[in-house]
């Protein structure tokens, strides 16, 4: 893998995005309006609304449309108006995508997927090159659609990938800063903190090594909370010295008060539910999301990167406002596990299911919203299929990771089929 | 349960299992076709019924008649005087007539460009404001100056004018009535409906000066018929195979048949005897129109905007006169006037096989889904097969293990979970290339002028037949193609075809069924070393290739190729008809890949 081919892939990806932005001027707005890409907490259209209010000295959360982190507002008000100069916004989103791909390149080249500090996979020889992983991310249609649709989840994805890349290259401080940014923007990445701390602990540089896990975790958690506090304090100052923005950003995610359809499983459930049970089921859904973190971190202690990948897959299915941006992040991480593909069992079925859902989703949404001949059940059925495909990928990866471990423990079982007894 | 599971798992390893899928695929196709043929039977189709209670069809007494007939004759005389005038002079006169009743009138200019031709005209329309309404809802009465067959819609225009004058005197309307008089049955209504919903192309189509509320329904009158008529032909197909709510058709059948004693018919099936053949023929005609996605009348443009609309066309020789027709329209408008909400109760997806018999989507969809499933089954099968070691790889090992199995030794030990490494890059590239070049025919046929179209089509047909040979030659010279390469290209291509057809069948069942049926040979073709089989496959594929199918359809239906291409271009440029995308970007690439695989030389399989 030469520098030339790296530059080629990155330039090609940037060029493809630029062409899509320039040749089809109505495409970005079309994609921004799609519920599969833009959720209430990541929509670019809603960001424009918040931005307009912010630039006119109105509290941006007035009107109840904008639910995103306040610090995005000064960033976007620096850019020229998107209606007259769309190219600047486009360039920003393209750069963020390229940065994410660069972080993926570092993650892939570290070889952590096949060989961590505590575990060495017998199959690690067959690993995918970093360039291939980056290219798979950059040319993934879901990533492209997210970038053209200008969903703000690209910033979160980029921060998550950088947190992982920095943890791998032995700089826990930068990793914590990055994950604080991700958590500040979208809240759910805070759940990635335990495996990330473990990953950073395993990959500390020898010079500044902290021996005790507890000491290391306390230190890193303190860094992360300090960083988040700073970000929140800045937001506090930015939104007219009030803490109300917390309820309008993270509160929306916690209570799911905006029931705009998306590809996730929550919206339909909470439309149907009786109000008296709402609080209970919100708690159950959130508990369900949180519960994987501890279990996976303990069970797969030897492979923290695998924990992070599986968690990202689980979040892409079960978080309150998922979109295809989360799926593209999970698929990018999945590409790191090239060596496990031979023992994954349902890749084709899961990919075919995903393909079916990708085609049928917009068709059923059209039948529901535009043609009027379908109803909400059509679209929800497809989001179930979509979630099924992703959970197939997640469970298949988990199976493959565990089987790989098991074959190290029981070398006599290599190549044999396992059976439940 | 675990025992059952392990039995199932051991079955999975059975080599016999891998021979089944092609038969399953063939079985799916056969069942899909037989399923469709069963639909006209009494056990599978249902009688229609009006499910929206507010419609109350035929429950009101209609008063149109008597002296209105004199007024009708007078208006017909006026129309006759305008017969040779141009669009603007006609509209001047119509405007003065409509304003004479106290109806507000608006006019709209539009221009469409398609296949190098210009379609231009001016719509005139009037809004009769509801005495009991608040202009939030409206129903539309359409009569195009030129009928569907390009004749002067002499009685239709006169009838709409008479009805307008008559409706204006009633105080019971709770919805506005819009009287739309476009210059032709094809482009005019589309321009008007687009502009009504502010979805028009601002450069070529003028906005509407006057608007009313949300459109609840539309009835078009296509009445160039001169004699007294026998029955009413109800045309209901919308653009892209969308249909109006079945309740609208039911109400009209009910009003015409029950109250006026006028026979009704669908899909030009005069003299329907309710036999199996007649029902099947009606259904197949309906499917053909739906599959083409081409608008069938002035009502078609309304349906994509979720406005239920139909065209009424008197046909045959009988004893009913214009007044009876007027009373049918009056009765229908009274029913629509009763609506409390948009028509939503009844079916939007149905196949009619008689004016009062239909099958709903739940009954007919499986046939198209089975056709789509056959491709997916084959795709999965080929994927599994491509991952299996070829006979050569395991030749020696297999003999030994066979010996072991016969002794009744543990079977699982002989099983290897490892699959052969699949080389995905070149099959994926080839499939991607075939799908991306499909943009060329799509662009060409929708942008070329009428003079070059037939020539371009012939050149394209020849190229499309020769291209697979070039591709297979190029692939063979670049690298030696392995059986796995063919299995993977076919697998991906069939997977895409299956997915698109399944999606399409929810939007336009008939198109998905027809394309699925025509593409079904693609499931069974494979590279072979027998020359006879190869030429048989090649001949079969050429016969079912998209250009040949289009040519032969045009030839059998007696339409010239130029007209077909012109209509397709018009459909794309004016109505946003997506049939060309399905043919060129979904079916043609799949055919191209199948044909390339057939022609490729193969050494071992």
From TrEMBL, chain A:
State the GO CC annotations.
Answer: GPI-anchor transamidase complex
Signal peptide limits: none
Q: Which GO terms describe its biological process?
A: attachment of GPI anchor to protein; GPI anchor biosynthetic process
Task: Provide the topology term for how it sits in the membrane.
Answer: Multi-pass membrane protein
Pfam families per the UniProt record, alphabetical: PIG-U
> What is its pathway?
Glycolipid biosynthesis; glycosylphosphatidylinositol-anchor biosynthesis
Question: Where is this protein found?
Answer: Endoplasmic reticulum membrane
Q: Any transmembrane segments, and where?
A: 7-24, 85-108, 129-155, 175-201, 213-238, 265-293, 300-318, 348-371, 377-402
Which InterPro entries is this protein grouped with?
PIG-U
Q: Which UniProt keywords apply?
A: Endoplasmic reticulum, GPI-anchor biosynthesis, Membrane, Transmembrane, Transmembrane helix
Give the family, as the similarity comment puts it. Answer: Belongs to the PIGU family.
Tell me what this protein is called: GPI transamidase subunit PIG-U
Which organism is this entry from? Trichoderma asperellum (strain ATCC 204424 / CBS 433.97 / NBRC 101777)
UniProtKB/TrEMBL annotation, chain B:
Question: Biological process GO annotation list?
Answer: attachment of GPI anchor to protein
Gene3D superfamilies tied to this protein: Zn peptidases
Q: Name one GO cellular component term.
A: GPI-anchor transamidase complex
**Keyword Lyase among record annotations:** no
Domain of life of the native organism: Eukaryota
Q: Where is this region: Disordered?
A: 390-413
The record's annotation in InterPro entries points to: Gaa1
Which of UniProt's keywords are assigned here? Membrane, Transmembrane, Transmembrane helix
Query: What phylogenetic lineage does the species belong to?
Result: Eukaryota, Fungi, Dikarya, Ascomycota, Pezizomycotina
Give the protein's recorded name: GPI transamidase component GAA1
